Amino acid sequence: MSKVVYLRHDAPVSERYVIEPQGTNSWWVRCQAVAWDGTPVPADRVVFFARSEAEARAWVDARVPTARPAAEAVG
Questions:
Q1: Number of structural domains, the chain?
Q2: Which of 4, 42, 51, 66 has the fewest CB atoms within 10 Å, i.e. the most exposed one?
């Protein structure tokens, strides 16, 4: 039996940032990869800790190109 695996080496790596409140003065930015078909990969990771939502949004905006939506706030 043989299997064919199609790899899209030309597809850009997509990421989605989610900002979550984790207390009164703590905001976490999580990064979640997006698969080639547009579905989010179930595993994510914390990439930044901030003391305010504005600080977290500024961090995300500095890393996300303007053509894509920046981040979603959860909570």
A1: 1
A2: 4
Q: Which long-range contacts (CB under 8 A, 24 or more apart) does 29-34 make?
A: 29/56, 29/59, 29/60, 29/71
Q: Which residues contact 68 (CB under 8 A, 6 or more apart)?
A: none
The answer to whether position 69 is within a domain reads yes
- Distance between CA 65 and CA 75 in Å, rounded? 24
Q: How far is CA 36 from the centre of its chain?
A: 14
Domain membership of residue 45 as a residue range: 14-73
**Is 6 a domain residue?**
no
Q: pLDDT tens digits, the chain, 75 residues: what are they? A: 455 555 555 555 688 888 999 988 999 999 988 887 778 888 889 999 999 999 999 999 898 765 445 455 555
